[in-house]
Amino acid sequence: MARPMIKEAGMASLLLENPYYGYRKPKDQLRSSLKNVSDLFVMGGALILESTVLLRWLDRGGYWPLGMTGISMGGYMASLAVTNWPKPIPLIPCLSWSTASSVFTTGVLSKAVNWTELERQYAINSVYEEEIINLLEYCGADSFKMAPHLEKNMDSIEHLLGLSGANRGPVGQYSSKGGGKAEAGRGLLIGGSPEGARAGDRVDHLLSSVNSIGTNLNSPPRGLHANSTLHGKTSDSVKCFRPSLHRESISFMKGVMDECTHMANFSVPVDTSLIIVVQAKEDAYIPRTGVLSLQEIWPGCEIRYLNGGHISAYLFKQNVFRRAIYDAFNRFCLKYPNV
């Protein structure tokens, strides 16, 4: 997309490579399959910090106007970065939405999550349901409070995940270990506003509560293995005496994801009229049902819908993305000619 933009609008691009991708990928990570749930939170925190540094560097160098855009997860990361920028700035997130929770619990990518391992960890580490749940604060309808709604629709969700009955085995590596060390997600929210500080404190408190009892998010307590006993029964029989374990694990994942990735937990960008969101109508990767819309979180932003799904939009609608970028930059130049 960068080359056509130079030809069409004389617009240059600076591309930031995500942590855990390309040359920044850990040696033991398979392609883009993150090993830990917490890696996603670390990625977000790093992208906020690095984007802020790059924007300040460009600003001091006299480059103008500046804007942020990205596709899919890149669009979400661009949104995170703009929530931490103290000036008006064009933002064009493409094929992303308001939270990552639905992506990994009901969207297509939920099939790449190793739910069997996450269920096991949730069952044998009491800190999850006894302490961490109490630290979570929720954002509107797409929160952990939707547990009754999730239970009501669990048959359809399990069908989507392919995890019901005999099919409930490991289905991939993404988020397969429930998170890195407790400190891994610290500093995720670095916004300077009071709202950002409170959100950051909650995340830090959530993660430190796990660390304080000597437990980390990607392994069971020391000495407790897959065939160790749990309350007099082996952990292999967890599903026998915890029939709701799968539902609880999905709900817990949704709550943690909303806590750490929901845009409502971050500062509102300085000027939401400079935001143009491009979304595919049939996007199965980014479910929007039961999720707060970006228009609710960022009043004044514009949402543009295009026909097609996540992949077809990425492959064949790049011209729509570029048009939205040009429009957002034109708005900025008209509104802030002297900034």
Automatic annotation (TrEMBL):
- Pfam families, alphabetically? ABHD18
Where along the sequence do coiled-coil regions lie?
none
Highest taxon of the source? Eukaryota
InterPro entries attached here? AB_hydrolase_fold, ABHD18
| Gene3D superfamilies documented for this protein | alpha/beta hydrolase
UniProt name for this protein: Abhydrolase domain containing 18
Species this chain originates from? Lates calcarifer (Barramundi)
Q: Which gene encodes it?
A: ABHD18
